[in-house]
Structures are given as C-alpha cells and as structure tokens.
Specification:
Blueprint: H1 2-8, E1 18-21, E2 25-28, H2 44-47, H3 51-65, H4 72-85, H5 90-106, H6 111-128, H7 133-147, H8 150-163, H9 168-180, H10 184-197, H11 202-214, H12 218-231, H13 236-248, H14 252-265, H15 270-301, H16 317-326, H17 330-342, H18 364-372
Helix pairs in contact: 3-4, 3-5, 4-5, 5-6, 5-7, 6-7, 7-8, 7-9, 8-9, 9-10, 10-11, 11-12, 11-13, 12-13, 13-14, 14-15, 15-16, 16-17
C-alpha cells in the first residue's frame, strides 16, 4: 500500500484516494466521474497490442508452470521482454512478479531482492488492471510467500478465482495457501482442479505430490513425484520430495542410492560425486551399526563437513533446524528455526503442517513460533500419521 500511495503522490495522513480503515484494511475515497460527452469509444486499433507480446507472456507462463528450476531464467527473460514491448500490459508485469517469487523459493537469487521486485511488479499489474486474474494471483503470491500475510493473500487469490475460476496458477497457489493454514483436503482439491486443466504439467504433478507429503501419505507422494519426473526427468522439486520420503520413512539404502543417482543425472563433477558416494556409504555403515538414531546424529555432523561445502542446503538455517530436530538436539534446532524466521525464509510457510517439523511439535516452543507467524498451532491435529 505504501508503494501505491507513493505512486499516487499521496500522504497517508491526508488521504485523497485511499483511506485506512482500522482493523479492516483500505477504502477508495476519491470521487469517480465519467464524462460521457467527451468519452471516446475504443477502436480495434486502440485495443490491439503486438502479437509478439502475447507470445512472450504465453512462453513465460509455460516455462513457469513447468515448475522447473532450469526453466526459470527463460521465464524471467520472456516476461521482461514482454514488458519492454508494452510496460502497461498487466499480465506481463504479473508474470514477472510470479517468476521472481519462484526464483526466491528455489534460491536461484537472494530471496529478499527477488521478493522486492516481485512486490513492485505485482502492484504495477494491479494498478494497471485490478480485474486481471493474473495481477491478483501475483499479489496473492507475494503476500503469501514474502509478507506472510495469510488473510490478505487469501483475499487476492479468492478474487483471482472469482475473475477466472479455471486459472491454473491461482488454483495451485490457493491450494498451497490452504495447506499452510491446515486445510489439507481443501488444498488438495484446489490442486486437483488445476490438474484437470493441465494434466501433463510437471509443476502441477509435483504440487499434488506435495499435498500428499503434507498428509503423510508417502506412497502417494512417491507416485506423483515420479509422474512429474516421467515428464521432466530433472525436475528438482520432484527429486527432492522423493528423497524427503526415503529419509522420512527411514529407507536409508534408497535414500543413499537416490542421492548419488541424482547427483550424476544433474551433472555434478566427478569429485563431488565421489564425495557423495563416500558420505552415503558412511551413512549406510552407520545405519548398519547404530540404526536410524545413529544416522540422524551422523547427518547433523555433516553440517560442518568441509567436503560438503558445495551443498547449499546444509548452509540454510531452516534445513539445519530440521536436521537438529531429527537428531533430538532441540535447543540448536530452535536456534536455527529462529534464524530462519528472522530471515523470513519462504521454506517456512508450511511450518504448521510439513512432516519435516514433526520432531519439534511436542515442544511448547514450536507452538510459540507458529503463533509468531500467525499460523494455526492446531493445524497438525487433524493430520493422520
């Protein structure tokens, strides 16, 4: 809202256009008039935009809907090129906002930088066309992943679906938001509607897998993640969730084999593959002698393994928190979780429901963290284990 007021040249203390309503939101207060005598009817030429514009936006959406880490640069480039052709076209601005949000989630760029541009682009799209479903989805995505403003995000996404009930991205994002708020069945239903629209999109397929992950239906998670890999063998999220399942269910051998096979498939250097082979072999040896408890302690030790310095996840506070929690080192887990919350890491939006946090749920400090994020502390109660 501050960005919109700045664009309008308005002082929040002396509003002309938008008034703040306590505990409710905002209200448009400027007089609206229409001088029909001087109104000029739109002509086809006034409404026509270059065909390249639509092609670029369509191409960007296709790259984005794939959910592929490797297609993100192409998505951003397509939206930026569309904006160069016509910076007043709301779907182009909205597409760039969503692409930057996804880059933040994938850590392809610093997330604070990406979210800042995404917010500005989403607000521009909304100012250009408030009746654009794309613009509403873009703003809802920013509010969800970056601002952690669940209510405002829900309003924007609901508005997008009022405008276009079949909007694939709106259905996926609203489904994800509902899951974050503990409405797991509703979230899955939204994503299934998106699946009906785009049944071969790996991005949609992996979102179904994530729904089953949140429901602790691990066999279904594997099935749907594999379906995404059947379409895109290098889909990063699908690969990650297959490994998440193997780790969660304690299948150490498959976890080790999958880790190495994916490193080879993604083209890791021979040196890094050799390191991973040694670490996974050590993991299997620990499992044979000390069981799962030993493996969890061993994985925590890998946080400071200099040979794994290339593993970005091991440097992330949220990931360390989950590892420490699984190993029973709760004080260190909460220290790392607090760092991730302070950093506003987008990986935490599903903190209330995601299985990787189950080891912390019995500690009263976990409920405190959920309250600090305005997430429902009882969301996990309705999940079957």
């Amino acid at each position: 809202m501050s960005a919109l007021r700045k664009a309008l040249g308005e002082d929040a203390h002396r509003p002309i256009y938008v008034e703040t309503v306590a505990r409710s939101g905002y209200r448009f207060i400027a007089a609206v008039t229409c001088d029909l005598a001087h109104e000029k009817p739109l002509t086809p030429s006034a409404m026509t935009r270059p065909v390249e514009l639509y092609e670029l936006v369509g191409r960007g959406r296709s790259h984005l809907l794939s959910g592929s880490y490797f297609e993100l640069p192409a998505a951003v480039d397509a939206f930026r090129s569309a904006i160069e052709i016509d910076p007043t076209y709301a779907p182009a601005q909205a597409g760039l906002a969503r692409a930057r949000c996804v880059q933040a989630v994938f850590r392809a760029v610093p997330h604070q930088e990406a979210f800042a541009e995404a917010k500005a682009s989403a607000l521009r799209a909304l100012a250009m066309d408030s009746a654009s479903a794309d613009a509403q989805v873009a703003l809802g995505t920013v509010l969800f992943l970056s601002a952690w403003d669940w209510r405002a995000a829900e309003r924007s996404l609901q508005r997008a679906l009022e405008i276009n009930p079949d909007h694939t991205e709106a259905l996926l994002q609203y489904g994800s938001l509902q899951e974050a708020l503990g409405r797991l069945d509703d979230g899955l239903r939204c994503k299934q509607q998106a699946l009906a629209r785009d049944p071969r999109s790996p991005g949609v397929l992996v979102q179904i897998a994530i729904s089953y992950w949140h429901q602790r239906k691990y066999d279904d998670t594997l099935v749907w993640a594999q379906r995404a890999l059947d379409v895109d063998p290098k889909h990063v999220l699908a690969c990650q969730f297959i490994n998440h399942v193997y780790w969660k269910i304690g299948d150490v051998n498959r976890f080790a084999a999958w880790t190495v096979s994916q490193a080879i498939a993604w083209g890791f250097s021979e040196e890094r593959v050799a390191v991973l082979k040694q670490v996974t072999a050590d993991t299997q040896q620990v499992y044979a002698t000390a069981g799962l408890a030993g493996v969890r302690r061993f994985m925590v030790d890998q946080i400071t393994n200099p040979q794994l310095d290339f593993d970005i996840l091991l440097k992330m506070a949220f990931f360390r928190a989950a590892l420490y929690g699984a190993a029973g080192r709760l004080d260190e887990a909460f220290d790392c979780l607090d760092q991730a919350i302070a950093y506003r890491d987008p990986a935490l939006v599903h903190l209330a429901v995601a299985p990787e946090w189950d080891s912390l749920r019995g500690d009263p400090r976990f409920a405190e963290r959920l309250r600090s994020m305005a997430l429902p502390s009882a969301a996990h109660d309705n999940i079957g284990n």
